[in-house]
Amino acid sequence: MKWLRNREIRKLLCIMLLITMAAVVITHAFLPIAAVAAGAGCLLLDILFLIFVRRQYRLLSALGDYLRRVNDGEYALELPDNEEGELSILKSEIYKVTVSLNERSEQLKRDKLQLADALSDISHQFKTPLTSMSVMTELLEDSQLDEDRRNEFTAQLQMQLKRLTWLTNALLKISRLDAEAVSFRSTPVPLSRLIDKAIDPIRISMELKEQTVSVQAGEGTLSCDENWTAEALTNILKNCTEHTPAGGELHIFASSNVLFTEIKVRDGGPGIDKADLPYLFERFYKGKNSADNSVGIGLAMAKAIVEAQGGTLGAKNALEGGAEFILRFPKK
């Protein structure tokens, strides 16, 4: 009877016995027969109270054991209870906390695995160009190296440095998006201006490949952060130019209705392999048709930017051929 070890219960039991004895003495002074009935009634109430206390103590003991097991990491435990009362409410709240702890624990495990994978991918992305740069640096130290080869290695070094700079900036931006440290300044932006701003950084590379872009934007506007949204759209366009052959054409369609504003970008490439579609926006994922110098982070960053502003970004194979990316922003 562990519950009798509780000091408060023992004190309460003593008070109840004193009340019982007082009731017997008082009733005996007036009517001896009534004293027997009063004593029996009080004892019955005492017994019923002790049964109730014993039951409640068992439930509290079970809750204590439950919490100890949860503290040991057994989050899969259940605590069913269909009864009413303050103790039942307490059990219900404890169960909710347990479920929440379990979800957080699983999320932490997933985050830990994702962090390990991300670190592995990042180290690989840096290791390849750094190794190449180290080799070219050693070659440049050769005094007998002819001028043409020296210029070639210097140009390759500059290209690798630009790639590392872009990768570093992209990773910093994604980390800020993950930490929700970016303050988006939403203003109405004309769709035509937003698209032109997104195209500007890739105009030269498109001209070198003799690619063209067809834009149908209309007079609508999009309420968004102009700089960040333009960067997201630039990353999508950059992906499209990489998969569109020389002399090909890109198509951009933008429209707005009472529910949402939509921007569609379609390239002139072979389309997206079905096996790549589920993973297209994952960081460092490189599909079967990816370019050799592709990092696999541009689309992931574009999706993070769009979703941080309440929008969605998806991809599919267009009926006309090629890959089609769809940005959709609901009206606020």
Task: Outline the fold blueprint.
Elements: H1 7-30, H2 32-71, H3 86-140, H4 147-178, E1 187-190, H5 191-199, H6 203-208, E2 212-216, E3 221-224, H7 226-243, E4 249-256, E5 260-266, H8 298-308, E6 312-317, E7 323-330
Parallel strand pairs: 2-4
Antiparallel strand pairs: 1-3, 4-5, 5-7, 6-7
Helix pairs in contact: 1-2, 2-3, 3-4, 4-8, 5-7, 7-8
How is this structure best described in words?
The protein has helices spanning 7-30, 32-71, 86-140, 147-178, 191-199, 203-208, 226-243, 298-308, and strands spanning 187-190, 212-216, 221-224, 249-256, 260-266, 312-317, 323-330. Helix 2 (32-71) packs parallel to helix 3 (86-140) and helix 3 runs antiparallel to helix 4 (147-178). 59% of the residues lie in helices and 13% in strands. It has 332 residues and is of the alpha+beta class. The longest helix is centred in the middle third of the chain and has 55 residues, at 86-140. The model has no long low-confidence stretch (mean pLDDT 80). The protein folds into three domains: 2-74; 103-178, Helix Hairpins (Orthogonal Bundle), CATH 1.10.287; 187-330, Histidine kinase-like ATPase, C-terminal domain (Heat Shock Protein 90, 2-Layer Sandwich), CATH 3.30.565. The strands form two sheets. It has a five-stranded mixed sheet with strand order 2-4-5-7-6. Strand 6 (312-317) and strand 7 (323-330) form a beta hairpin. The two termini are 64 Å apart.
